[in-house]
Design a protein that fits this description.
Length: about 375
């Protein structure tokens, strides 16, 4: 199910969250937080929240749990990067069902090549280029993977990028920006802008049209997509025609509605996000940088933005807050929230109808933007 939102609803949510926060603080002396939570609602054992998953999402979460991953927030970055992913869970679920898990079979008519793109200081960045069947020229989308700026790579996030290439009939360039803590903030953001500049100047070699560019990303990558779109103005390069932000990080507070009701969600929880920020940032002051704290950035510089959120996700409210902030500065924004699914659902279209719907929606949004 898709949940629609308006500015008025967003404002009411803010008021409600504030009111609940005040009441909770007033009652802390007498009642423990655990008791309060139990009185409010029962916790679903699969999602770790009050929300129940869609049946297909439940199957995927159980498959993910069966892979035996350890809590990310208890590990070193090197250990965390070795843990099973939701992409691994999709693969395991398909194989359990006796279905083909080959990406080229799941999303046909898209070819891939490996490429190297220069980063901010000339450091070579690995990239995967997805090209749909046909003569072109095609519009181009620069895609940033998720993983909290500490984990993840183009392979783990292959499914989302591949789906957009086919659905939007666009060349999609998915880039491995440098990760923290080896490369602290703002290295990933600088790499993202450098990659965009390079793509704008060189996408023709992949039958891309440099006049029709867009940015997209998941989670931490959604933040990079929005930040990069803003930075293109000062950089003096071709501005993107659209941004697709899939459950993006848009602010650094942890008291939003979804941080409260989905703080213990799976596969992403509040503790993991704190761990990501600890590994990424050099100081607490970095949290105020508008490249990270996007709701205080120059949002009026953005092209049309599409936000995709999952209901069972501590970052859900980040999308709602960004939507409201964009409306306040008259930037065209469309936001859809998918009920009964979790963070990282977008790349699971092979087993999850909601992901297939979200991918189709994102592709249509891109196609519409490229017509303008």
């Amino acid at each position: 199910m898709i949940i629609g939102h308006t500015s008025a609803i967003a404002r009411r949510r803010i008021i409600i969250v504030f009111g609940v926060g005040v009441l909770a603080l007033a009652g802390l002396a007498a009642v423990s937080p655990l008791v309060v939570a139990k009185e409010k609602y029962a916790i679903d054992p699969v999602t770790g929240t009050k929300y129940k998953p869609e049946p297909e999402m439940k199957d995927l979460l159980l498959a993910f749990a069966a892979l035996g991953g350890k809590p990310i927030e208890t590990l070193t970055p090197a250990e965390a990067r070795l843990q099973p992913t939701m992409a691994d869970a999709v693969d395991a679920l398909l194989k359990k069902r006796g279905e083909n898990s080959d990406p080229t079979k799941l999303v046909p008519d898209v070819t891939t090549v490996d490429a190297t793109i220069p980063g901010a200081d000339g450091t070579p960045l690995n990239a995967t280029v997805y090209t749909p069947t046909g003569p072109g020229p095609f519009p181009a989308v620069l895609y940033f993977h998720g993983g909290g700026w500490v984990m993840g790579n183009t392979r783990v996030y292959d499914a989302g990028a591949r789906a957009l290439a086919k659905g939007a009939q666009a060349v999609v360039i998915s880039v491995d920006y440098r990760l923290a803590p080896e490369n602290k903030f703002p290295t990933a953001w600088d790499d993202a802008l450098a990659a965009y500049k390079w793509v704008a100047a060189n996408v023709g070699r992949w039958r891309g049209d440099p006049r029709r560019l867009a940015l997209a990303g998941e989670s931490a990558g959604g933040n990079l997509a929005i930040s990069t779109a803003i930075s293109t103005v000062a950089a003096g390069v071709t501005r993107p025609k659209a941004v697709i932000a899939i459950y993006p990080v848009t602010q650094t507070g942890t008291t939003t509605e979804s941080y409260v009701d989905s703080g213990n969600a799976k596969p992403l929880n509040k503790a993991m996000i704190a761990w990501f920020l600890d590994k990424t940032l050099s100081s607490a002051a970095d949290k105020l940088d508008p490249r990270l704290d996007l709701i205080h950035a120059k949002l009026s510089l953005l092209p049309p933005v599409t936000i995709i959120n999952a209901q069972i996700d501590p970052l859900r409210s980040d999308g709602a807050v960004l939507e409201e902030a964009l409306r306040q500065v008259n930037v065209k924004v469309t936001r859809r929230e998918y009920e009964g699914v979790t963070h990282q659902f977008f790349g699971a279209a092979a087993v999850l109808p909601a992901a297939k719907a979200a991918q189709s929606f994102a592709a249509e949004q891109l196609k519409d933007a490229f017509k303008e």
